[in-house]
Amino acid sequence: MASTQNSEKAKTNPLVKHNVIKFAYMHLAALYGFYLCFTSAKWATIIWALLLLEAAKIGITAGAHRLWCHRAYKAKMPLQVILLIFNSLAFMNTATYWVRDHRLHHKYTDTDADPHNSNRGFFFSQIGWLFVRKHPEVIEKGKTIYMDDIYNDPLLRFQRKHAVLVIGTCAYLVPTIVPMYFWNESFSNSWHIATMLRHVLTINLIFLVNSIGHRWGSRPFDKSIKPVENLSISLLTTGECFHNYHHVFPYDYKASELGDTKFNAATLFINFFAKIGWAYDLKIIPDNVIIARIKRTGADKTLWGWGDKDQTQEEIDGIELLYSKRNVA
After folding, report:
1. Beta strand pairing status for 279-280 and 74-75?
2. What DSSP designation does 307 have?
3. Comparing C-alpha atoms, which of 78, 221, 91, 231 is closest to residue 155?
4. Which of 167, 222, 224, 244 is least buried, going by the fewest C-beta atoms within 10 A?
5. CA pair distance 124, 306, nearest whole angstrom
6. pLDDT value at position 4?
């Protein structure tokens, strides 16, 4: 019976062989790049790769995720251009493709219509979903997702139309050439560290939200859903794994309940541009709405506790005190 079920699953989700080969090469190249960091790379190359890594994560978190997918704030054209460059550097497909999959993920979380359904296992939700054809439900439900705002965005249309040129330049050409030109780094070090290692880290760090972010952590806002709060993953993903909160309140520009400056680099980035007027209409959720939701559906005695214990009145009072003192934008 088990072999029959596995056979049927293979027919439903056959391997995308060129993706398997591509990701296998990328990860092997990244491992070699990690080795080169300790043997022959210049410090400037390592620092360059780290700066690119942070920029790429911002391109996903502050760009594709909070700006374009959830419309949690608005951005003037100069900031949109910066985010488009950072998003192209990340190369997790085009922003248009990313937004469609993420809106689908929110609407059909942890079902067969979720592109990286966590119920199919840790590896699948982390990166395995890129190795197989999309589940028929993902394809079918994907047709129902509202995308007019994305298709009508001239910058996103440009990236999608000229994806090979734009993404190729931002994700591969510039990261490799800059170390070679400015500080005489070797091609091998530039390619394997600033391009391959940086790219693989970007993908795997961001996708920790899909795997760990739906598995290990607390559920203070809604104990009936799988997304969790996980502080360590939030630090690695510029503030994206306050995930129980985010699935309950997806339009908060902070994607977090901890105010705007704690463990949340993407929020700091948005706040900086808000101060100079390039980001505006930042959406936040009123504290009374958050507290009401915690009382109605939340769990855990603290925001960062583990398990699904029902809250006592004393714990609820403590939560209200926390929110009365926090500093929000």
Report:
1. antiparallel
2. B
3. 78
4. 224
5. 24
6. 44
H helix runs in 91-236, sequence order: 95-107, 122-126, 136-142, 148-151, 154-161, 163-167, 174-183, 187-189, 198-211, 231-236
What does the CA dihedral 45, 49, 54, 56 come to, rounded to 10 degrees?
A: 140
Long-range CB pairs of 119-127, under 8 A, 24+ apart, other chains included: 122/211, 122/215, 123/211, 125/207, 125/210, 125/211, 125/214, 126/204, 126/207, 126/208, 126/210, 126/211, 127/23, 127/203, 127/204, 127/207
CB 247 within 8 A of CB 106: yes
Taking only the tens place, the pLDDT of each residue in 196-214 is: 999 999 999 999 999 999 9
Q: How many residues does the chain have?
A: 329
The CA distance from 268 to 218, in Å, is 24
Q: Which residues contact 220 (CB under 8 A, 6 or more apart)?
A: 229, 244, 245, 257, 294, 298, 299, 300, 302, 303, 305, 319
Q: CB–CB of 71/150 below 8 Å?
A: no
What stretch of H or E contains 279? strand 279-280
pLDDT (tens digit per residue) in 128-180: 999 999 999 999 999 999 999 999 999 999 999 999 999 999 999 999 999 99
Rg (CA), the chain: 21
Backbone angles phi, psi at 128, to 5 degrees: -60, -25
State both tokens at 273.
């541009």
Given this model, what pLDDT does residue 261 score? 58
Mean pLDDT of 317-328: 49
How many of the other CB atoms lie within 10 Å of CB of 96? 19
CA 178-184-190 angle, to 5 degrees, is: 50
User: What is the band of 5 on the pLDDT scale with cuts at 50, 70, 90?
Assistant: very low
* Dist. CA 196–CA 28, nearest whole Å: 9
